[in-house]
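Lab meeting tomorrow. Please check the following:
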Amino acid sequence: MPMFSSPPLSSLLRPALLLTLCLSALAPASLPAQEPRMYRVEMVLFRHTDRQAITSEVWHSGPVTRLNDAIRVDEPDAARGFRDVSRTPFGLRGLVTRLNEAPLYEVIASYAWEQPGLPAETAIPVRIQAGPLLGRELPQDQPEFMPWQITPIMSPSPEAPQPPAPIYEVDGTVTLSLARFLHLHTELLYRRATDQPLDGDHVRTLEGGQFAESLVSERRRMRSREVHYLDHPMMGVIVEVTPVE
């Protein structure tokens, strides 16, 4: 009875190995990094004119994180993909008109900018400073400068005093991030001058007057091309995010 021997394993693997080598030679060495998708952000800030809102409940202040890392909305960073588009047609213009016509609201400011959609761990906040300048405030840990003080020659030169920090009606950050969905995180301090006696950690004294300060902090999952409203008894925020085609 004739005996048949199976071909050696090396001869079976050789054609498959040659095919793999040919395909790998034809494939590109590496794919180019994909650019993040760009989004247009339109935002309207407005105040409620109800003066009794200041005493309707106890407001709480708090720190705004990553202020030093933020990009100013009026000084965009083109190198990191942020671009001011406030002079282009404004999609929320109709809402601004209706708010200005309503006696219960007053528009503080409106903005429009383009930015990349980045993951939460690398998302860059945008600094917002809007409304009237309420005054200026020196850092609490800065010693008062005495012009008659004389510094010894061998002593190190004292650091120049920091300029007083401006205090605006609205100050804080807005951070847009992209994961499976778009997310918006607002950390905005709203301030309103008042002469009413108030208690709580939200009351601050500035240049002989006082104002109530409230932290408007909210995380919101966004839908693109949809107008979102962030409510607060003293201030409202309207935001629309649109993909840039």
